[in-house]
Design goal:
The chain is α+β, with helices and mostly antiparallel strands and 517 residues long. It contains 13 helices and 19 strands. The chain has helices at residues 13-27, 36-42, 62-75, 129-138, 156-161, 253-265, 278-285, 290-293, 301-310, 327-341, 403-419, 451-468, 489-502, and strands at residues 32-33, 55-57, 79-82, 101-104, 111-115, 120-123, 143-144, 177-183, 189-191, 225-232, 234-235, 239-247, 273-277, 316-324, 348-350, 390-395, 398-400, 425-430, 435-445. It is globular and about 65 Å long. The two termini are 32 Å apart. The structure holds flavin-adenine dinucleotide.
Length: 517
């Protein structure tokens, strides 16, 4: 194997060549690639980036991950770990710094252990949502785990480490994991919570263990490489009903948000609760009408109105579900939801009891299509947003579950996107009775001249405008590095101390969540 040629930004080839030989010794030459086309794709995101990895290494076991980390340290190169690498809209597989070797954990695909009664599965980083679902269905299990809106081929570990969100029960991925197994920068292995207690019978079910909880150190972090994780699974409820509702005007949004909060607080709603604006619904249900728009962007008002009339009209579209162990419990929850929401929304539309849907392990449908919203031409049979030139930048601030705060954030975000010529597609997703994420997307066609630059400018303005108002993202993409959403000085100093203690040479993902240290 040989490295790609050095550029002004990459380190000289000699140490990289030596490192790649050491990686080949560790994992086998067939699992190390510096192939130009492969490396170029791994360095392509859904927005313009200046960086790319120097090579890709694919270890096949935890021992090989340890060997790779030691080889990297010995040769003075850094590694950038990804699990399945579907982090589209936040940076895909592109390393945060130049000169890094992409450590792809896609070959670690074991479902290591499973317990139907206690509802958990221990998985390696390459395990996808689709794979776990097939495993559960194959055993006739009652359990399920929902995946993200992008693809069931994303990894459970990568999604969780980014503290991703899903529909249905337990929408906050980071809230339903424990027992992390982590390779540190010196190649040693640590376990978190009760899995660190020798012989603990609660290793898979007691997240905290004793003493300071260490698991949080490894989520949204570059302090370790997670090689195994235990995820809690939920039983598919015996009875469930999904519901939709429509809010016709922005003015009505705060009262609806406040009503949804009270339904979550009192325990009536325990699934995810989402509200999508009209732009988002258009992007979820179709493609940009290039022919009708005669090439103009953003979408002209008359076409927006026409498309929304086809969809029945409305400004905000809500969805959630109720569930219970008996029909009576479920129906009681249903009447409570209708009683609270009916005066505030156009109508509450209920699915049939136990109708299939995306909330309890069902297919999320064609959500990835939104990445192709402005991309002309048919949707490819095997969509791949990086390869296909889709423009997607997410910016997802965490907000208090409060109607006025939500409207304030939405108004600011819509104004910034419209001013930059993009349709302001926004979803609001409740992750607890106290917190909502505003998931804002800048969707564009990377092939259109000037759009890459305009989208990045739009993101910069959006991030600054929202941060100035106290709305910071729940998760950072590559474009957020060095931006306004960094912790205060005392916290950065603590992170620096930890980084110096665990990885003084900067072997693991330098630049990723290290806030310029
Ligand atoms: C149309 C569309 C819809 C989307 N919908 C959602 C959604 O509903 N919810 C959501 O959360 N996301 C969503 N996403 C974003 C993204 O697709 C998902 O978050 C996806 O799960 C991330 O890919 P992955 O799981 O393969 O993680 P990876 O890309 O493998 O990992 C993500 C990051 O985590 C770190 N990391 C990964 N593995 C390790 C490891 N083993 N050790 C240490 N660090 C590691 C790295 O920094 C890596 O860049 C969407 C994207 C698009 C384009």
């Amino acid at each position: 194997v040989t490295a790609t040629p050095a550029t002004a930004e990459t380190p000289p080839a000699a140490p990289v060549d030596a490192a790649l030989r050491a990686f080949a010794d560790a994992v086998g030459a067939g699992h190390v690639s510096a192939d130009e086309a492969e490396v170029r794709l791994a360095g392509t995101a859904t927005f313009a980036t200046a960086r790319r990895p120097v090579a890709i290494v694919r270890p096949g076991s935890r021992a090989e991950v340890q060997a790779c980390v030691r080889a990297a340290a010995a040769h003075g190169v850094s590694v950038y770990p990804v699990s399945r690498g579907c982090n589209w809209g936040y940076g895909s597989r592109v390393p945060a710094r130049d000169g890094a070797v992409l450590l792809s954990l896609e070959r670690l695909t074991d479902i290591v252990d499973f317990d139907e009664r206690l509802g958990w599965a221990a998985v390696e980083p390459g395990v996808t949502f689709r794979q776990l679902d097939a495993f559960l269905r194959g055993r006739g299990s009652r359990l399920h785990l929902n995946g993200p809106g992008s693809t069931p081929d994303a990894s459970i570990v990568g999604n969780t480490l980014e503290r991703g969100v899903t529909q249905g029960v337990m929408p906050d991925a980071a809230a339903r994991v424990g027992a992390l197994e982590v390779v540190l920068a010196d190649g040693s292995v640590v376990r978190t919570g009760s899995s660190a207690l020798p012989g603990s019978r609660a290793a898979r079910v007691h997240r905290h263990g004793v003493g300071p909880a260490l698991d949080g150190l490894f989520l949204q972090s570059s302090l370790g490489i997670v090689t195994e994780m235990t995820v809690w699974l939920s039983p598919v409820p015996a009875f469930h009903r999904h519901f939709h509702f429509v809010v016709d005007e922005d003015d009505g949004l705060p009262a609806v948000v406040d009503a949804l909060r009270s339904l979550c607080m009192e325990g009536t709603l325990t699934t995810s609760v989402a509200l999508h604006n009209d732009w988002k619904v258009m992007a979820l249900t179709g493609r940009y009408p290039w022919a009708h728009a005669a090439g103009r962007t953003p979408l002209p008002d008359d076409l927006r109105a026409g498309r929304m009339a086809e969809l029945g009209g409305g400004r905000w579209f809500g969805e959630a579900a109720v569930h219970g162990p008996t029909t009576a419990v479920m129906e009681a929850l249903r009447s409570r939801v209708s009683e609270v929401l009916a005066p505030l929304v156009r109508e509450v539309d209920w699915s049939e009891p136990n109708a299939p849907g995306p909330f309890f392990g069902g297919d999320v449908g064609h959500a990835l299509e939104q990445a192709y919203w402005r991309r002309p031409g048919p949707l490819p049979p095997d969509p791949h947003p990086d390869r296909d030139g889709c423009g997607v930048i997410w910016h997802s601030p965490a907000l208090p579950f409060d109607g006025d705060a939500v409207l304030r954030c939405v108004d600011a975000a819509e104004a910034v996107l419209a001013a930059h010529g993009f349709e302001p597609t926004i979803s609001l997703q409740a992750v607890s009775p106290r917190c909502v994420y505003a998931v804002i997307s800048i969707l564009f066609d990377r092939a259109a001249p000037g759009e890459d630059e305009r989208a990045v400018r739009c993101h910069t303005v959006l991030a600054e405008r929202l941060a100035a108002d106290g709305f910071h993202p729940y998760r950072l993409g590559l474009l957020d590095a060095g931006g306004p959403s960094a912790p205060d000085e005392a916290t950065r100093a603590l992170l620096h101390t930890l980084r110096q203690a665990l990885d003084p040479a900067g072997v693991l993902a330098p630049g990723r969540y290290d806030f310029g240290l």
